[in-house]
Predict the structure.
Amino acid sequence: MQLVSFNVFRTLGFPDTTVLKPEHFQRHKDLLKEADWVLFPEYWQLNALVHGLKCRVFPSVASYRIGHDKIEMTRAFQTVAPEHTPWTRIEANGPQEREALWNAMPLPFVAKLPKSSMGDGVWLIESREDWQRYCDCTDVLYVQEYLPIDRDARVVVVGDRVVAAYWRTQAAQGFFNNVAKGGQIDTREVPSVVTDLALRLARTLGVNHAGFDIAVVEGYPYVLEFNRLFGNKGLAKGSDLNGAILDYLKAQHSAENPEGPTEPPPLWPVAV
């Protein structure tokens, strides 16, 4: 396979891989057209690569488009797994909507900015003052029920396989489980009800590279979000993320480019 990568750090050690800077992709159109896979482009490159140059990209287009925006992500979860999605309301940020959501949500509740990661842009709303500060920072109101948890599970999915699953326990200041916000990694076993949900969502939505964040309340899993680009601090020794990616790319390539003779199509009877 011939690979082109736009992210040197995520493809270190990949064989037969040419690394390009994202801003230089227009200089290498022929190379990109001939590549079997184009790996880890920036979001702003996606339309030009996929629709303009007909490139095959990894992660998948669904991984990019659904994972780019918490609102789009939640709506996708509500569509395919509403029973595993926390109660969420999304409204325009207007005076009537602010008041309606404030009256509808029991305290405390969670509010989020549509595009954020690593715990940034997530608010615990405990008072009217918290709500006002949040409303002043966003064009769209995204509010979600507060789940009584002290940890969540990170499930790393590549293709059709769970590469790693671990717990992230709450930071010392409370609320945040993200490692970037002080959460701690707990390697105790993650139950299959959690990993099965992550795989089901990945398969249904066409997401092939993601870290799913799933909370468990009294044994029942709720999906919070997924990150297309996730950290590797929680990956246990022996978790071969690069190997999983290469295996997936090779399998997909082989499935579409079988070697050797193929059986002729069967002859179907024709009515006369």
Observations:
- The CA atoms of residues 88 and 101 lie 10 Å apart.
- The chain is about 30% helix and 25% strand.
- The first strand starts at residue 3 and ends at 5.
- The two ends are 48 Å apart (CA to CA).
